[in-house]
Amino acid sequence: MTTIWNLPRIEIRSLSEIKESRPTALLTGKTAWGRVHSYLGLPLVVQAEPTNARRNYMDKLAEGLPEQAEVVYGVGGGLVADVAKYIGWRRGLPVVLVPTVLSVDGFFTALVAVREEGTVGYEITGPVDRVVIDWDVVSTAPAHFRGTGIAEILSMVTGLMDWRYAAERNMNTAQERFQQWAASLAAGIAQQAFKIAPGVGEGRVDALRNLLDLICVEVQLTNQLGHNRPQEGSEQYFAYAIEPRVARNDRGVPYADLIGPGIMLAAALHGQDVRPIRQTLLAAGIRLGQLRTTDIIDTLQMLPNYVQRHDLPYSILHNTEISRERAEALVAQTGLDSA
Predict the structure, then answer these.
(1) Model confidence pLDDT, tens digit, residues 70-108
(2) Does 282 lie in the same domain as 158?
(3) How many CB atoms neighbour CB 137 within 10 A?
(4) pLDDT tens digits, residue range 291-303?
(5) Of 118, 138, 158, which one is at a domain's C-terminal end?
(6) Which pLDDT tens digit goes with each residue over 249-276?
(7) Among 153, 186, 283, 324, who pairs with 230 as Cys (CB 3.0-4.6 Å)?
(8) What is the reported pTM?
């Protein structure tokens, strides 16, 4: 059977309007909960602050969930959303997500990005029951978090390059075959990101609403296709590979801090001018200086072997050798040596 997943129910409303009577398991972060706890009257039976999305870690959280919990709430960003979705799926409970930032598309997908065996895989959980967005909360979040989900849209720029690159070499699977209609739609979605980036960086609600619309269309497109190839290529593989290297005290690193540099590096590998992408990322508030140059260079050198070892979908990395000199040149070309 083939399943085409739907988007979750999305409610745009004040958080103070949420009335929850079910015993609640809350996944959140200290900063996020500090911003919104006074608006949310949740009947908590347990509260946890997840630190990573490794499968064994999330399994333990799910196994330790109190039996009286009847609903799982995830309040915060992408990590919290993934862990809440996973626990709800494992325990057969409804899940409500309250994004305090628009940092990832994972709020709206039917998948959880699970960290396992040194890379990222996907567990199909189905979409959550409800996503509640309060623009007063999202628009006043720190600029380097609130709209960084725009990187999910910009990753289509390089994801499409790799999808087409694989098609030209007959290296896509039958399920992931290149489809021009889908590529054209994805390119149009990505183009809009360049237009809204300054408004997103400024925290304007109209731009953030545009970003929400683009993310939802992107998610529904990949739902329709049944795969993520239009927005998952070399840029994502770089993020997967460098994440374990830069994780801080067993804690995950913000997705945008990884994928932003990844998009520029992937574009450079494809021989593209990275300046428009760099300007757009910066305008949207995405930080490009959170990774050490030595970590970037070391990761680039091992990437061709990494994608082969983890059997990732075909990309330019599968047909590229990256010496230390080439890695240093890519870092200089993208400005990541001085970010």
Answers:
(1) 999 999 999 999 999 999 999 999 999 999 999 999 999
(2) yes
(3) 21
(4) 999 999 999 999 9
(5) 138
(6) 666 678 999 999 999 999 999 999 999 9
(7) 186
(8) 0.95
In whole angstroms, give the CA distance from residue 231 to residue 236: 8
Task: Check whether residue 153 and residue 116 sit in a common domain.
Answer: no
Residue 304 lies in a domain: yes
Quickly tell me which residue has 């720190």 as its tokens: 142
CA distance 187 to 185: 5
Q: Which domain holds residue 194?
A: 148-334
* Residues 170 and 276 grouped into a single domain: yes
Rounded to an integer, what distance in angstroms lies between the CA atom of residue 103 and that of residue 259? 12
Q: Provide the residue type at 160 as one letter.
A: L
CA-CA distance, 76 to 83, in Å (whole number)?
Answer: 11
| Angle (nearest 5°) at CA 100 between 140 and 159 | 105
Copy the structure tokens of residue 1. Answer: 């059977």
Final residue in a domain of this structure, among 83, 103, 138: 138
User: For residue range 127-172, what is the model confidence (pLDDT) as tens digits?
Assistant: 999 999 999 999 999 999 999 999 999 999 999 999 999 999 999 9
The DSSP string of 162-202 is HHHHHHHTT-S-STT---HHHHHHHHHHHHHHHHHHHHHHH
26/136 Cα distance (integer angstroms): 21
Domain check: are 251 and 212 in the same one?
yes
Residue 240 parent element (H or E): helix 234-246
Place 180 in a pLDDT band, splitting at 50, 70 and 90.
very high
Of all helices (H) and strands (E), which one includes residue 73?
strand 71-76
